[in-house]
Amino acid sequence: MNVACSWHATEEELKYLKDALPAGTNVVAPRGDYFSRFECTFNDVRDLVVDADAIIGYTFPRGTIEIAEKLQFISFMHSGINELAGC
Fold this sequence. Notes:
By secondary structure, the protein is an alpha/beta fold.
Protein backbone atom coordinates (compact mmCIF):
# COMPACT_ATOMS: atom_id res chain seq x y z
CA MET A 1 0.00 0.00 0.00
CA ASN A 2 1.19 3.53 -0.80
CA VAL A 3 0.19 6.44 1.43
CA ALA A 4 0.92 10.07 0.52
CA CYS A 5 0.90 12.84 3.11
CA SER A 6 -0.10 16.27 1.87
CA TRP A 7 1.86 18.14 4.51
CA HIS A 8 5.57 18.42 5.24
CA ALA A 9 5.58 15.61 7.79
CA THR A 10 8.40 15.34 10.29
CA GLU A 11 10.46 12.15 10.53
CA GLU A 12 8.64 11.40 13.80
CA GLU A 13 5.23 11.75 12.11
CA LEU A 14 6.30 9.52 9.22
CA LYS A 15 7.55 6.89 11.68
CA TYR A 16 4.26 7.04 13.59
CA LEU A 17 2.29 6.46 10.40
CA LYS A 18 4.55 3.64 9.22
CA ASP A 19 4.32 1.93 12.62
CA ALA A 20 0.51 2.25 12.70
CA LEU A 21 -0.10 0.97 9.17
CA PRO A 22 0.40 -2.58 7.85
CA ALA A 23 3.98 -3.77 7.41
CA GLY A 24 5.41 -2.83 4.05
CA THR A 25 3.29 0.31 3.65
CA ASN A 26 5.19 3.03 1.80
CA VAL A 27 4.54 6.45 3.37
CA VAL A 28 5.78 9.58 1.57
CA ALA A 29 5.55 13.31 2.21
CA PRO A 30 6.65 16.50 0.44
CA ARG A 31 10.19 17.76 1.08
CA GLY A 32 11.73 21.16 0.65
CA ASP A 33 10.93 24.73 1.59
CA TYR A 34 7.47 25.74 2.76
CA PHE A 35 5.55 28.66 4.24
CA SER A 36 3.40 26.43 6.45
CA ARG A 37 4.34 22.78 6.87
CA PHE A 38 0.65 21.86 7.00
CA GLU A 39 0.05 23.01 3.43
CA CYS A 40 1.61 22.11 0.13
CA THR A 41 1.42 23.03 -3.51
CA PHE A 42 0.38 20.79 -6.38
CA ASN A 43 4.03 20.61 -7.43
CA ASP A 44 4.96 19.40 -3.92
CA VAL A 45 2.69 16.34 -4.19
CA ARG A 46 2.35 15.73 -7.93
CA ASP A 47 4.83 12.83 -8.02
CA LEU A 48 3.78 11.48 -4.60
CA VAL A 49 0.06 10.93 -5.22
CA VAL A 50 0.10 9.26 -8.65
CA ASP A 51 0.57 5.79 -7.11
CA ALA A 52 -1.10 6.54 -3.76
CA ASP A 53 -3.78 4.20 -2.44
CA ALA A 54 -4.49 6.70 0.34
CA ILE A 55 -3.86 10.41 0.87
CA ILE A 56 -3.70 11.88 4.37
CA GLY A 57 -3.53 15.60 5.02
CA TYR A 58 -4.96 18.91 6.10
CA THR A 59 -5.34 20.38 2.61
CA PHE A 60 -5.29 18.98 -0.90
CA PRO A 61 -4.11 21.25 -3.71
CA ARG A 62 -6.41 21.58 -6.68
CA GLY A 63 -5.75 18.77 -9.15
CA THR A 64 -4.35 16.33 -6.59
CA ILE A 65 -7.32 13.95 -6.50
CA GLU A 66 -7.65 13.93 -10.29
CA ILE A 67 -4.16 12.51 -10.84
CA ALA A 68 -4.30 9.95 -8.00
CA GLU A 69 -5.48 7.10 -10.24
CA LYS A 70 -5.17 4.34 -7.60
CA LEU A 71 -6.76 6.37 -4.79
CA GLN A 72 -9.09 4.40 -2.50
CA PHE A 73 -9.07 6.46 0.71
CA ILE A 74 -8.85 10.14 1.66
CA SER A 75 -8.30 11.29 5.25
CA PHE A 76 -8.69 14.94 6.22
CA MET A 77 -6.65 15.22 9.43
CA HIS A 78 -8.68 18.16 10.73
CA SER A 79 -11.73 15.86 10.74
CA GLY A 80 -10.12 13.75 13.43
CA ILE A 81 -8.12 10.56 13.43
CA ASN A 82 -6.91 9.06 16.66
CA GLU A 83 -5.84 5.59 15.60
CA LEU A 84 -4.63 4.39 12.24
CA ALA A 85 -3.93 0.83 13.36
CA GLY A 86 -5.98 -1.75 11.54
CA CYS A 87 -6.55 0.33 8.41
